[in-house]
Structures are given as structure tokens and as C-alpha cells.
Amino acid sequence: MTEDVAMRLRQHGAAGIALDISYNRDIEDHGFKHQILLPRRTNKTAELCEHFVQLYKKYWDGQSVRQIHVVCSKLQPAAHEQIDLFTPSELDERRHVLDETIDQIRDRFDKKAIFHAYSLMKGSTYLQRASHIGGHKGAST
Questions:
Q1: Measured between alpha carbons, how far is residue 80 from residues 17, 33, 39, 43 in Å?
Q2: Residues 104-118 pLDDT 10s
Q3: Nearest CA to 74 among 104, 29, 43, 49?
Q4: Across-strand partners of 68?
Q5: Is 14 within 8 Å of 75 (Cβ atoms)?
Q6: 79 with 30: CB under 8 angstroms?
């Protein structure tokens, strides 16, 4: 899901400053909703995934989860990027090229053309959701 959010940000030339996640355990128990401000605005998949996992692990208490929502907010144009002094510029550039290449493959062939191997594991919903619009039922265009 975080990959989808990052891809949509790149498609719209935007970058997020805040990451919101929420999940529902079941109908009676509403789970949690939390937000963090990112150290810099980004639309890079690896950075957003890293922050999502940190936020989720911090607040998840081990119970089963029914729904997860991932949202990037406080969007700004991605034209100018803040430099991260702790990440080598070559790594940043490689991640950018990788994200763009994956986006082009998915745009040309379909979201199911390239995905992580763990999407084949039992319980994964990626391949089912790949043909949905924004992860929801409906025909994708």
C-alpha cells in the first residue's frame, strides 16, 4: 500500500511531509490512527515504507488487523528536494531511478508485472488488490 501511495505521489509530482497510518482491528475495536512528520518531504518508496514500518511497530500491540490505511499529507511539489546529509547521494539517485523504472513498468504492463516476492506468500492480498482501483473493488483502467 505504501508503494501505491508513493507511486501516486510521483505521478502527481508531489512529495509528502507527513505520514498517517491507521488500522481497524474489528468493528467494535477501532485500532489506532497516528501521524508522524517526516524528516524531509519525499515520494521515495523506500523512505515511506521505512517510516510506515517504524510507526506501525511503535503502536501495534500484536492483535489481528482487519484494515490498514496509509496516507501522505501536507503535500508539496516535488520539484526541489532537500538533501539528506546522512544518505549518500548515489544511493538517493539509485532509489529514484529504481522507483521511476518500476512506475514505468507498472504503467506499461500492469501492477502485477513487477512486485515483491513476499506478495506470493500465504495471506498476501497484493495480487487480488492489484486489479482494484486504489485497493478497492472495481475495474482498474
A1: 13, 30, 15, 12
A2: 998 898 888 888 887
A3: 43
A4: 23
A5: yes
A6: no
Cα 46-52-58 angle, rounded to 5 deg: 135
Alpha-carbon distance of 40 to 14, in angstroms, equals 13
Burial of 89 (0-12, 13-18, 19+ CB in 10 A): exposed
Backbone angles phi, psi at 52, to 5 degrees: -60, -45
CA 48 vs CA 42, 109, 115, 138: distances in Å:
8, 24, 17, 26
- How far is Cα 43 from Cα 99, in angstroms, rounded to an integer? 9
Whole-angstrom distance, CA of residue 134 vs CA of residue 53: 20
Helix (H) or strand (E) holding 97: helix 89-109
pTM equals: 0.74
Write out pLDDT tens, residues 79-135: 766 677 777 778 878 888 999 999 999 889 888 888 888 778 887 777 777 776 655
Amino acid at 22: S
